[in-house]
Amino acid sequence: MESARRAGAGRAGRTGAFAAVDLGASSGRVMVGRVGPDTLGLAEAHRFPNRPVRLAEGLRWDVLGLYAGVLDGLRAAGGVDSIGIDGWGVDYGLLDGDGRLLGNPVHYRDARTDGMAQRAWATVPAERLYAETGIQDTPINTLYQLLAAQGTEQLAAAARLLLIPDLITYWLTGEQGTELTNASTTQLIDPRTGTWAHTVAGALGIDLSLFAPLRRPGDPAGRLLAHAAEFTGHETPVTTVGSHDTASAVAAVPATEGERFAYICTGTWSLAGLELHAPVLTERSRAANFTNELGIDGTVRYLRNITGLWLVQECMRSWGESDVVRLLREAAAVPGLRSVVDASDPVFLAPGRMPERIAEACRATAQPAPVTRAEITRCILDSLALAHRRAVEDAQRLADHPVDVVHVVGGGARNRLLCQLTADACGVPVVAGPAEAAALGNVLVQARAQGLVDDRAAMRELVVRTQPLTRYEPTRGRDAGAWEAAARRLPGP
Q1: Amino acid 493: pLDDT
Q2: Is residue 2 scored above 60 in pLDDT?
């Protein structure tokens, strides 16, 4: 393809090495990527746990433990040309006037945001809030977290607010910035302009001067400070990437030029939707609870945020189960679509009692309650596939953007049963992989900043040519009516 020829033109076999710091809700890792004209490879340098801590005042992130893991990983990575950092959205750390952290960041699953949406809507009606920010209604949004923090001594003492990847970048480099793709998850960015939504913030009493200046993927973010360079052994530059992990993952979706595709970024969450060139800010879109987050190169990630494999993870934690392969094999033998739940229901957001809550949700909709571990797991996977189907169908309708294939990237791409169920539910082929999409997108943006890859199409073409992908066709003779009947058991979004 033309993009592939452009990607390799004039580079004379040059290959670069890049460290991708990828922070997830349950673990973090540092990956080393190598990028050249016909090369795109990843190797794990270090993986470390991300264990939230429950204190008397609520659920908190152990962000110092995360930073220690990042430093250990960068030391294990060795010499690289650049470092990029991505992670989850919405959460933040507060700094005082001397740049010191004011307490451990609050976890998005903390209950402090209960009732904050209604408080916001009393001043800025939900319709106007969506029309100006394009962000779906979910209690984890930064806007609601800041409303919950109003009047606290900590917020009053804060001179700066940094989203989690920006906080790690600051500790590494001493430079403060707010990366745009992650900033767009705060519900304080206008997706039409890529700038702050001053009218919304002003009406709700949110001080936007707390945020550092906006940065975009590919911008330089500084060099390692002396303490970090001494620990890691290298004075390495840091490059701004799509610091929201979904933005990095979508950048690595292996779509070919001209392909009409939807994507599902799977892991703790499922983010299902489309890559667009303009936001969809209609009332119908708001009612369907779609969000307009920003991606690289001015794109829009038009998607629905679905509680994903968190449901299985929490069940396994409750059961003390560690063998996911056996669990999925047993789930595959259970008859499908016997019971389903709304995987997007906020009732599943908090940790604890997940198997019981799944069974309770089934009984509440007059369906048989799953009992065994295999039955509960099959219920979850059927429900996730059904939620994927809903999101993909709704996105096409609301954006007037038909698709012919669904790309599943992230950890869920390894889940063969979920991928096949998603193909059956959606009725179109599913291409699964790469599983390490966020790290690959992180690396590719760094490589592009150094001239090793040209445009977004060239980045994706390199993914297609170098990464293992698995195609799932809808099962022959699939019963489309069974999926439609299952969907009717649940309330519409």
Answers
A1: 53
A2: no
Q: What is the helix (H) or strand (E) element at residue 4, kind and residue range?
A: helix 2-8
Selecting among 86, 91, 110, 245, the annotated active-site residue is 245
CA distances from 215 to 155, 166, 212, 220, 240 (A): 23, 10, 9, 9, 7
User: What is the identity of the amino acid at 35?
Assistant: V
Residue with tokens 């980045």: 459
Which tens digits make up the pLDDT trace of 54-65? 999 999 999 999
Kindly list the distances between the CA atom of residue 94 and the CA atoms of 101, 128, 180, in Å, as whole numbers in the listed order. Answer: 6, 28, 18
- Per-residue pLDDT band for 25 (boundaries 50, 70, 90) equals confident
**Phi and psi dihedrals of 243, rounded to 5?**
-75, -15
d(CA 251, CA 33): 15
Dump pLDDT digits (tens) for 151-163: 999 999 999 999 9
| Residues written for the chain | 493
Q: What three-state secondary structure class fits 457?
A: helix
190 catalytic? Reply is no
Residues of the chain with pLDDT > 90, as a percent, come to 92
Residue by residue, DSSP assigns 254-302 as -PPTT--EEEEEESSEEEEEEEESS----HHHHHTT-EEEE-GGG-EEE
Provide the 10 A C-beta neighbour count for residue 281: 17
List, in sequence order, every residue forming a beta bridge with 294; answer none if it has no partner: 300
Rg of the chain in Å (alpha carbons)? 22
Per the rule left: phi > 0, alpha: psi between -120 and 50, beta: everything else, 282 is beta
In sequence order, the β-bridge partners of residue 472 are 430
pLDDT at 5: 40
pLDDT at 255 over 70: yes
Cα–Cα separations (whole angstroms), residue 65 to 50, 52, 333: 8, 10, 41
Q: Tell me the pLDDT tens digit for each residue of 43-56.
A: 999 999 999 999 99
Write phi, then psi, for 2 (nearest 5 degrees): -60, -40
Residue 216 confidence (pLDDT): 98
Is 229 in contact with 79 (CB distance < 8 Å)?
no
For residue 52, give the nearest of 61, 63, 43 by alpha carbon. 61
- From 391, 394, 137, 380, select the one nearest 264 (Cα to Cα): 391
Residue 1: band (very low, low, confident or very high) from pLDDT cuts 50, 70, 90: very low
Element (H, E) at 221: strand 220-223
Q: What is the mean pLDDT of residues 197-224?
A: 98
How many Å apart are CA 374 and CA 377, to the nearest integer? 5
Concatenate the DSSP letters of all residues of 292-332 into one string.
EEE-GGG-EEEEEEEE-THHHHHHHHHHT---HHHHHHHHH
Measured CA to CA, the distance from residue 286 to residue 487 in angstroms comes to 20
Q: Both tokens of residue 172? A: 């590494």
pTM value is 0.93
